[in-house]
Structures are given as structure tokens and as C-alpha cells.
Amino acid sequence: MGTGAAGGHPAGQPVPDVWQPPTEVERALHRAGEREDWPAYYRTLAATDLFFPMRRDIVDALPGVLRPAIFRDPQVRGLCVAVFTRGMLPPPDSGDVFERGDLLRIAKSWPRSASWLAVNPGTPVETFLPAEPRRWKRHARRAAPEPPLKTWFTGPLTGPLAHGLACGALLMVSNGAIWNHLGWQSGGYSEERALLRRWWGVTGRDGWLQAQEQLLRGDMLPAAWEFVLEVRQVLLQEDGVPPKPVQWREAVEAVLVARTAELVDRTGRPPDFDLDSDIALIQKLIGRILRYEARFRADGVLAEDGLVRSVLAWDLGRASCMARWGLGARYCGQAETETAVLRAGETARGVYGSWEEFSAGYILGRCLHFDSEEYGDWYTEMLAAHRLLTADPRSPWRTVSFLAPAGEGDLPDPRDLTDL
């Protein structure tokens, strides 16, 4: 794609006429290489994650230790180090894994014996860059952040699978990951395992299966959250208008009292819980929900008269991501990941009527879990992702229909919007 010490070595792989760059990164690298615009090439390369292929047994033995493999290529003289951009990563399998780095990390740990950095070797956009660690550091320190919305243009873009993947888009966009990448290698193999261990206590396949199933069933949500929202929905359906807060509180209390009386009649024993204490906690929860909804309306997450229908989206959105985390960590296979993603999308369609409704439910669940009415990062990160996903024409929430995932033919293809 280019020659000379300032650029790269000509790639040996011809670029097919019908080749589709999988993400904006590969598109930008390809264009820069064709023009031999090496400053633009390095700006793109310095701003993105780079992945090193490594043997799985080595990474399992030394997680987090980056030891890139050195190889020879007949196109260049000298040893090479291979890196791949995220769009060029192959599907996860049982062989090699990929560890994440970036241009600065490469420059700091560059092996003196290597003469070339092979970017996406063996692909239509392979490029061999001469070893210039000092130059790489300068580019890395000036690198601008990547846009948070990332699409894998050669991945699922329409249909039920894309819909299920888009259910995890709030978290994907917030994390700067590709929203529709099944392999979920954006963090690298050992990072995915560390994430699952730290946040979920998952250290193997059995733990992943249990967590995945709990999320898909909505069993990780505290039952009280969904209970109070279900009571409000019943009142709304009966009266045709949302209940006043007092009416909602009284109805919830009446249901709790009635259920406790049924339990006493059935068992012949007093309850083993403090009903008054439970009622007080539920009333406090209703107050939190009402205050969050007021903030959501002020920030545009809800319409002026909008209500959160359900918080099941909090589990379903994470289920969509958990499926991919499991694949990236090699705790499951691709077929299992696809099945879980499809289940998450199908369940979401049975509960919500739009991406906006789904988003409000997810954000409320996240806030009830983490935020404690501080409206800090746990909320503001999701608010920013919500606004991007609902406004950007390239967003899956604008290109994938929520209720009819198999018939989005009239919606714009995000690949046609990449230059916006």
C-alpha cells in the first residue's frame, strides 16, 4: 500500500473489487494507504485498539502479559510483529486468542529484533510498517478518541440477530465497542475473562451458563422492581390513565397485604418476614422510581408523559452482552451465543414497543442498581449513549426495526451512511 521509510511496504494481498471494509477503521486505513497518506494512516492506527495473536495456553498461563509472536514474511526482509484491527479479527475458536494493545503499548515494548509491524497480515489490507517506535509514540500521544458508535459492516445489520445484538447497544456504545460483533474480542481474551470474573464471579463455562440463563429469564433483577411497575401497569390498563402516586402506593400495599393473608391462610403460620418493613421499602422504591422518571423526562429519555413500563431491559441488555463475553472468553461456542442473543431480542419484543421504551427500562434498572440517586457516571454514561443511539442515523436503533426485525428492508443501511 506504500513504500519508503515514512510509510509501509507494498502489501502482497490484492484488494478485491467487491471487498467491504468491515469497520470505519479498515476503511480509513485502506483509503490512506491507497493515497500513500501516511500521516492519515498513522492517525487512524494510533487512535484504535490493536490486537496481537497469541497462543491460548501461553495467555492462560500468563494472563495480561503481552508477548507478541515474531515471524518472517517473504515480502520483507527481517522479522515482523503482527497486529490486527478489530474488524479484521477472525471468529473466536479454540486455537489462537487475541490480546489488546495499542500503538503506544507496541512502541514501549517493541522487540529490538523485529524490523516490521505487520498490520492485518494475510488480509486484503495488510501493510508492513518499518519499526519506528519513537514515531509511533508521537502519533499515539496526539491521537484523537474514536467515535463511540462502531458498526461491523460485514456483520449482522438487519433481522432478528441484529435486533438481539442491538439490545446490548447501550453498553456497547458506552464502552466504545462494536455493537454487532458476535465475537466480542474488543477487550482481548484475558481482559474478557478478567471482566467476567470481577463483575460477575464467572470463572468458567458453568458460571457463564448460569449467569446467561438468569439474565435471559430476568432473574437477576430484584423482584420488587418489576412488581411495583407491574402494579402500575395494571392500574393504567384499568383506568386508561396513569395512577397518581398515592393511588399507586396504596395499590401496592393492598397487594402485599392480600398476598400475606393468603400465605397465612395456606400455611396456618404467621409470615417469616416483617410485612410493615417490606411495605416501607416498597414505598421508598416507588419514590425513587418517580424521581428517576422525572429526571428522565427532563433529559429526554422519556417523553413528557412517559413512564417506564418494565426494567426487564436491564437484564436483557446485559444478556445480549453476556452472550458475547462468553464467546470472547471461550466459555461457549458461536451457536450458543447466537441463540442467547436471539432469545434476548425475542423477549424484549414481547415486553416493549420501541427502542426508546427499552432504553428507559434499561437505564432505570442500571440506576436502581448502581446510582443511588446521585445522577453520576452510572446515569450520565447511559444518557449519552441513549442520545447517540436515538439520534444518529447510523445507529442500529435507527436502522433495525424494534417490532419487525425481519422486515427492515425500507430502513437505511448504515453502510450507506458512513460519510455523514
UniProtKB/TrEMBL annotation:
Residues 1-21 are annotated as: Disordered. It holds the Pfam family DUF1266. Residues 1-10 have a biased composition (Gly residues). InterPro entries: DUF1266. It comes from the Bacteria. Residues 196-402 form the DUF1266 domain. This is DUF1266 domain-containing protein.
